[in-house]
Amino acid sequence: MKPRVFAMFVAPSVLMMLLFIAVPLVSVVVQSFYATVPVYEETEVESCTPGFLTQTCTRERRSVPKLDAAGQPVTTTEFIGLKAYRTLLQPEAAAAAFASGGIAALLSIDFYGALRFTLTFTLITLPLVIGLGLAIALALHEMIRKLRGPLIFASLLPFIITPVIGALSIRWLFIGDGILTAALRAITGLPISMFAQGWTIELLMLTYRVWHAAPFAFVVFYAGLQTLERDALEAAMIDGASRLQRLRSVVLPHLTPLIVFVALIHLMDSYRVFEEVVGFASQAHRISLQFLTFSFLTPDQTGNRAITRAAASSMLTMVGIVILLIPLLLRTWRQRR
Amino acid sequence: MKRILFAAMLMMTPSLAEAACDYQNDVPLQSLTAAFDAWKAVTATMAECGNYRAELDQEFRTKQPAAFAANPSLYQIGGVSNGTLVPLLNAGTIRPLDALVAKYGQNLAPNQLIKIDGKVMAIAMDVNAQHLMYRADILAELGIAVPTTWDEVLTAAEKIKASGKLATPLGATMKPGFDLAQEFVNMFLGFGGTFTKPDNTPSVNNEAGLKTLAMLKKITAYLDPEYLVSESTFVQKQFQQGKIAMANLWGTRAAALDDPKESQVIGKTALAAAPAAMGSKPATTLWWDGIVIAKNITDAQADAAFRLAMQGLSARTVAAAPGAAVWLIKGYVPGKYAKGSIDSANAGAPPYPSTTVMGLMSSAIGERTADFLTGKKTAEATLADIEAAYLTRAREQGLVK
Amino acid sequence: MTTKALRTPLSLRLLAAGFLAVWVIVAMFPLVWTAVMSFRAPVDALSSDPWAVLTGPATRRAGQGLTLVDLVAGLAGLALILLGRRYGARGWIAALAACAVLFWLTPMLDGALHLPPIFGLTLTHYRAVWIDHEFYRNFLNSLIITAGVVTVSLTVGTLAGYGLARTRSLVAFWILITALIFRALPHSVLVTGYVPFFLASRDLLMPLWNAPILGPLLHLFSAVPPTFYGQPWAVIIVLVSINQPFTIWMMRSFFDSIPTELDEAARVDGCTHLGAFLRVIMPVMWPGVVTTGLFAFLLAYNDYLVTALLLDAQSQTMVPAISQFLNSDTKASDQIEAIAAAVSITAPLFLLVTVFQRQIVSGLTAGAVKG
Is the pLDDT of residue A56 over 70? Predict the structure, then answer.
């Protein structure tokens, strides 16, 4: 295909990606170094609010934003350098906490707690998702053809369902007097409250993600199993390999590129963990990096969004994902070469 | 199929509905307010005038500033309270109402005019406060007097727990965010604390702050272990299902405790002023709810919007929902559900400060207090964190250099 | 040959079957249970006793539920449909007509016979969600945004995918790798970039409205520059762009599987590249387009982050509206209404998997097995 024709075909897509992914990205980088601040002035303000039946009026000194001629608040934008990053990472507090209290004290700083949770979430669910997906694919491979359709249908449901709703549906099963918590209490005899402490909520979130992502892994591995040639299996059998050895030496190597692919996609997606935090309402106990950014973007009680800190948090999140992806990307690059 | 019919019928109902309104509104108007019963009653009355849609959303506080800052504003009428007035005031997105009050506000009590710097910026419709609600039958059975201080509340809770009647006798709105911040703010003010110094720097890490945290911690011993998800509805349900005996709950929830459809404890709850932390002043703050009119709309729209709002803030609403709130509207006679709020007000509960500083402080407190309650940090560390979080925000906003 | 030896022993097959049974239960249980809860009165739905949730005693006591007549009619209708399937289109129509008659007859019988309900079932929550809370508005918003995302995404992505599949240049390779990196970006990072611009768009775009030539043209559309916050079309563009990397990867691997001889033959006949693409490739490509469209649909339909931050209460889609339900509850029934809303959101997805199961599976494997 000639370059000009190629350019015509890909132009709209590339333009959209440039305008709406690359430009905002650059804007985020820039925003993390600037702060837009309203200008406040001190004035004496008389304000009257109702008591019951009579009004209470007070006269006090207050800081109110300066308004310009059009009635809009006056703002100044100033370069603050790395200040937002320092607020997020709190290097002095972090060092002090680490020196005195160890990891636990360090994790009480929002950013590091979110980092820890995101990394644990991503790295623990990875082998579980691949393992479960593989198990389902291998088991389905043994099933009679007629049953496979409905089984695949049932298996796809956790993947298709809206993440927030999936998390909510599991939450409703466990929160307070939910039937599964009641069942757990009945079985173990312990007064279990799944939402009273952080680690049980984290366990539920991990379970949810494995439940949600395993179908994707399963479908990919299942398709891979279909393309496995019988000759290779028969050859291994002739050599006297047992079932397990056949699995290890023929099936798994055949599936390896697919395992790498699933791992790549899973790392990308679970690093972005966000809907689980919303669905399980775990803000008090566990937050993720993306949730941290989201919380900066949500207006607080003065209607203000902490854009600069959100930008700094976004940058740090991106650094993390790049670091995580490098090994897998290198591997894919080498394969293509 | 039925649903489509229902929807079609619904869209026709405005013209079919009995127009109990004084006039027919012909300017399309929208409002964004909270979703609790008082607002449901007010917006229902306003809907009778036609051409109006109410958006009832408990997350209105995060959506209002951006919606009102849009030009033209996405809503003409806004429902606010002491706290949520501040963002709109600071951004200059609401208009002064003096002229409109002169034109349409003959039925308003002078108490309802919220004046900032001499100009009427909002019209209040009710007052609200978190005050004590308790199971009169349980207290009578165990011979416990109605508590007037938090120490007495804790003693009563211990007695109820010891008697084996209820494992978790107390309820509290401790969900991180606004609810938890309110618990802290009320208690802190009850212990005589002031949140900031005159130069807007924080002063929470002091004796009043430590006493507040200690008291909150003592309360958690008698709460349901999952108290960090507990907001007003959660506590209301706990009462309705007979799981708790005492709680400091918003006055507007009192009527729900006698709701025949949901409550199992009808007629058994009683109301009292909020307990005091120190001395006799109730440890609570007085809130008002009211309406504001957007600035980024035409004067004709503002006129129609205010006129419609006056319909909502009329005796008809009070008659339709007398127990929904402690109304300030003329024609309201305080019923039994108003006792707690009125008693708290008369005993000297302060109004919640409508300032930017308070908004920032509340946000910081709401974020950080949970760390102390879950045991992640000590009281001093938590208070230091609150001050640091406040300072970050205040510097970001230019309130503190 | 030795196919018998390759066959798995019975014990292993039973193990596999047992494991799959457990997995299917685990996969479907939360969803099925949530659906059951949504049809019960609050007291039953939130009960900690599973039998209460399943049979709905309080709902039954309130007089709402399925009577014996209802159950018999329901089973008869199901049997009729299964029977009608065998006779093709005419069988379907006859079965559906019979069901309609049953549907009309049953309430009359119930009223006449005054039978008590056997197990509790109520539609009050759905009625409350869809009518009182006007969830149909959110549904329409979701439809608008999803339809917009799917159309634009497919149009732009198909062209790009074709271009990338038919070129082996280094530029194409780098575009794909950059797209992969973009796909990894957390959406909150991008939204951080959008939010200030969306909120201040009116002031930022004003110079364009005052520009000499462009100004009057833009004035034809609107007198003042729009504020992007709360606008569905703005969110459509954002979602399409976020989805582009995934779309072009998927389309590229589908196009890869179509032999180049096809377009070369078309070009020999005198078609331009675009002509060959539209007239020869696209008809063959249709299944791939459907599959990619499905995933674009899923992304737009299921999105929470972007829609929650960039849409206003009036233009809210269904998924962020769930937060509204969870936060607006002031009664116990409100929580069940949130559950009914959640089931309402999931129902179309359930239908989607039923109809498009094969396409979804082929889509998930497209990137992996061929790429």
Answer: yes
Beta carbons of C331 and B3 less than 8 Å apart = no
pLDDT at B16: 40
pLDDT digits (tens, 9 = 90+) for A169-189: 888 888 877 888 888 888 888
For residues B54-83, average pLDDT: 85
| Nearest-10 crossing angle of helices A289-297, A110-141 | 130
C-beta atoms of B346 and A54 within 8 A: no
pTM reported for the whole predicted model: 0.82
Is B200–A63 a contact, with Cβ atoms under 8 angstroms apart? yes
What is chain C's mean pLDDT, rounded? 81
Contact A177, C48 (CB under 8 A): yes
CB contact under 8 A, C230 and B74: yes
From the list C167, C183, C365, which residue is nearest A219 (CB)? C365
Poorest-pLDDT segment among B173-187, B354-368, C259-273: C259-273
**What ipTM does the predicted assembly reach?**
0.81
The residues, any chain, with a CB within 8 Å of residue B351's CB and separated by 6 or more, are: A49, A51, A56, B82, B285, B286, B287, B288
Helix axis angle for A252-271 and A198-226, nearest 10°, is 140
Is B4 among the domain residues?
no
More confident residue, C221 or C175: C175
CA distance A90 to chain C (A): 21
Question: What superfamily does domain C134-370 belong to in CATH?
Answer: MetI-like (1.10.3720.10)
For residue C172, the chain A residues in CB contact (below 8 A) are 6, 10
Paired tokens of C172: 């194409």
Domain ranges of chain C: 18-65, 68-115, 134-370
- Which member of C166, C193, C353 has the closest CB to residue A153? C353
**CB burial class (10 A; 0-12, 13-18, 19+) of residue C313?**
buried
Q: How far is A68 from chain B (nearest CA, A)?
A: 10
